[in-house]
Amino acid sequence: MSASLPHRGGLRSEPLVQPSGGVHAAILLGAGGFILIMGVAALYDPRFLTLFLAAGMALCLAVPVLRFPVFSSVAWLLVAGSSPEWWLADMIGNDGMITAAVKVVGLGLVVLCIVRYGGRFDMFNPAFAFVAMYIVGFIHGLYPTLTALDSTRSLIGSMAPYTFSFSRLSRRWCTAMINTTICIPTLIVVFGVVLAGAGIRPLFIELGGIRLEGSTHPAFLGGFAAAAIYAGLLELFRGGRSRYLWSIIVNYVILVLSGARAPLFLAFMVTLITFVALRSEQFPLRRRIMPVLAGMLLLPVLVSIALGGSSAIRLFDMLSSENDASNMSGRDILWPYFEAAWQASPTFGWGVGAARMVLDPDSLVVKLLGTTAAHNEYLRMGVEGGYVGIFTLVTLMALWGWSHTRGAPRADRFILRLVLIAFAIHSITDNTLIAGTASILFTWFSATFARIALEREDAAAEARRSRSEMAMAHDPRSGAQGGGEPAYVS
């Protein structure tokens, strides 16, 4: 059963939760079960109590969120994009708890979207790979310093970015989330200006050169900008609106100022290949000439600045340096530790979350480099899932993209698959699966996949209507064949 909701241009039919005795009983049983599980979990480990209390507070917001799922989802995406684990942690600390809270709220939104719009079984969802690694980790044996609670929390955090694909979603939801993804980098910079004005957080940071960070970290800002470029590129080739071309330009400026090298290179390659190889009636070749010429004119200017060494911008400083830029984040120091942990259990790894335990937070290496992350998702997956885990995750990721884009419009199929390839390459040198950027990027993927499914359903419904009309036109009893008058039976 559905109800009509007003929107611009008419009425939109969206599923609503209808009050009934069954719903009320389910709510009571759910509340009782929640309290029971919370009590058992708290007896097992008191640290679970904090998580359940946070979940209980989130459940109190379920009713207004259920009534306004699009607004609530956009608000969550904006908060996640602003990276409160950076700017809010500067004021209150406890960045790990803030990150967990953002992901738990996102999972709550997924549940409410499933209640509101309906669920679907996403067969090749990458989240299943982490579930498999989690189970195998307990069977094989966890990393010596990894507890069951830590592994469970890592599992939830690893699964969270992909879970929106288990909901059917709506057109309004998809459109809103896609446009929000495009706007996030600009809003991060604007919010960063506000924080800098309040003396809370600087807008630029000295990190191997001057880098724009806004309210987040420069590497995160670069990842958000790359995702925004991908989203703008898809909308540009789907609809041809000039505002998406301008959004791509703005996000490229932000990406360059962030000094994030790998996201810039991959975004540039995705944009170049798309401009050259993808045909589009909405964005034909004649409209691509000026952007391409502008890029060709700006490229020598950027290169001359880089070679001249006159800029302190980190990206240009790396290009003009005689040192190997790939070592500037300390990857050559970090990777041997993770390689050794992987080789200790090469086939099945040490369980989800094990990579966080490889480096001692109090060690000299961590204090010098400021991170315990691998900066290589294949290494991290090797530690946590071994060769089996890597194969499972890569296979599911490829099948996930292929299955959702099969039969999709040309622009969706070409760009989304190309972005997944770029993501696989980016994962060699960055923390692409566990960073906050993953929540934004894969929520955008879920929105585009849901939009493709909705368009496919609309096309199928239109085809059924056409067949029905043709059948009625050729049915003698309808009186419509040959344009004659209706036949009446006395």
How much of the polypeptide forms β-strand, as a percent range? under 5%
Give the helix level as a range of percent: 55-70%
Order the strands across the largest sheet as they lie in space: 1-2
Major sheet: size, sense and barrel closure? Answer: 2 strands, antiparallel
* First-last Cα distance: 38 Å
Rg over CA atoms, rounded to whole Å, is: 25 Å
Order of helices and strands: EEHHHHHHHHHHEEHHHHHHHHHH
Tally of separate helices:
20
Could you tell me the number of beta strands? Answer: 4
Give the low-pLDDT segments.
1-21, 305-314, 317-328, 480-490
Structural class: mainly alpha
Name the average pLDDT. Answer: 83
SSE topology sketch:
Layout: E1 2-7, E2 10-15, H1 21-44, H2 47-60, H3 62-67, H4 69-82, H5 84-87, H6 89-92, H7 95-117, H8 127-140, H9 148-159, H10 171-197, E3 204-206, E4 210-212, H11 218-239, H12 242-258, H13 261-277, H14 285-308, H15 314-320, H16 331-344, H17 364-369, H18 377-405, H19 410-426, H20 436-473
Antiparallel strand pairs: 1-2, 3-4
Any overview of this molecule?
The chain has 490 residues and is mostly helical. Helix content is 68%, strand content 4%. It has 20 helices and four strands. It has a two-stranded antiparallel ribbon. Strand 3 and strand 4 form a beta hairpin. The longest helix has 38 residues. The protein is globular and about 75 Å long. The two termini are 38 Å apart. The N terminus and C terminus are likely disordered.
List the defining traits of the structure above.
two-stranded antiparallel sheet, disordered N terminus, mainly alpha, 490 residues
